[in-house]
Amino acid sequence: MYDLIIENANLVTCDKNHNVIWNASMAITDGKIQIIESNSEKKFLDLTASQKIDAQNKIVMPGLINMHCHAADSLFRGLVEELSLEAWLQKVWIAEKAILTPKTTYTGSVLGLAENLLSGVTSVMDMFWYPNEAVKAAGDLGMRISTGGIFFDYPGIGDRSHEDFLQEAEKFFEDNNINESVFPGVMPHGTYTVSPEHLKEAKKIAERHNGLYHIHAAETLTEQSDIKERYGQSVIRHLHSNGLLDQKAILAHCVHLDDAEIQLIADNESIVVHNPMSNLKLGSGIAPIHKMFEAGVTLTLGTDGAISGNDLDMWLTMRLAASLPKGNTLDPKVMNAKTVLHMATLNGAKALGKEDKLGSLEVGKIADFIFVDMDKIHAVPVFDPITHLVYSTCKSDISDVFIGGKQVVSDGRITSLNIKDILEDVRKLSPQIVASLR
Ligand SMILES: [Zn+2]
């Protein structure tokens, strides 16, 4: 007797071999995948379960892993437009300072995380000012989250000192180390906003707790010249010479890199998060992901916040990740759909240190999976489900989401909380948000 059996599924496993099983069944008990079989094997006919779900005309695949987000920034979507990163950030920080409290951060986090969840994201790496609020929001939605104490040397939100950030980062690990849905880390904002000494102190905390280290890196040319002027070397070399590049270092953006820097990232087995939508809209540039892939860098994908890319859409992210290198090199073979699908699934799990538990549908792994509706005008016929997922699927195609075997989205609706209440809270707050920049 199983807890749940999914029947008649077109299973895109995202395992190492990219196996696809048409007309499959998957049995789940205690939140884990117990059996995956093709229906032609007929073994499932005799199995019983508390619940059986018919997944006819659905692709069933692992939940997506969004490796760079600022969920609560959804409060500010559309507020600051069409500026380069540096000028844009100055305005964003004014608005954030005027609006953000732990309470509004919770509201914004639910808003941003719910958009992720409804589009099929089951785990998010989130960097924000009040990480405990993002953890609470993720918990209320039933999602997994990687976050942790932020570091920022200038007057930030809540007027906290570096000592405050150190304490908060330490406490975050103490509070969250036993929560199975939270993957704790430290989140220093960037090399241009945090001094080398403080970056190293943040790293020490992460190392003490075996945690992740997430930072913006090499996003714009202005940032590169700023860091070269201050420290005499590029962002990636600066991180490396301060001992900050290793397997736990997760570098968001990496748009402007020379070949030696790419090799440095590969040699240190650091992770890169590609955020193509945000990079394009802020005019930051196009990251050389085909070169990083060739060098053996583990590439993952992120949406960044809705305030820069205006959309938390991992499907658009995948399509851009697969298409931009082709346009850049005039070579349609340079980046294939299977590789990109792994960036959004198995590679994310590897980056989180959970490759043995998440990121693919395999027996023994945690049952985080989604249904992609194929009963759609743009989904008939589907000859290759993997190219369909990368080049044709949109976030509104996601009908159902399961995390740890528990259904958290049913037929496009969040099951755990009333999202309309959150929307009402945000509507009430929006006059203040607009006024923050006047
Ligand atoms: Zn970011």
What does this structure look like?
With 438 residues, the chain is an alpha/beta fold. The protein has 2 domains: 2-62 and 365-413, Urease, subunit C, domain 1; 64-351, TIM Barrel. The protein is built from 15 helices and 18 strands. The chain has helices at residues 85-99, 102-118, 131-141, 162-176, 196-208, 221-231, 235-241, 259-267, 276-281, 289-295, 314-329, 337-343, 346-351, 385-391, 419-435; strands at 2-12, 20-29, 32-38, 49-54, 58-62, 64-69, 121-126, 144-146, 148-151, 185-188, 212-217, 249-253, 271-274, 298-301, 369-373, 398-403, 406-410, 413-414. The strands form 3 sheets. Strands 1, 2, 3, 4, 5, 15, 16, 17 and 18 form a 9-stranded mixed β-sheet that branches. Helix 11 packs across helix 12 (337-343). The radius of gyration is 21 Å and the shape is globular. The N and C termini lie far apart (62 Å). 52% of the residues are buried. Bound molecules: zinc ion (ZN).
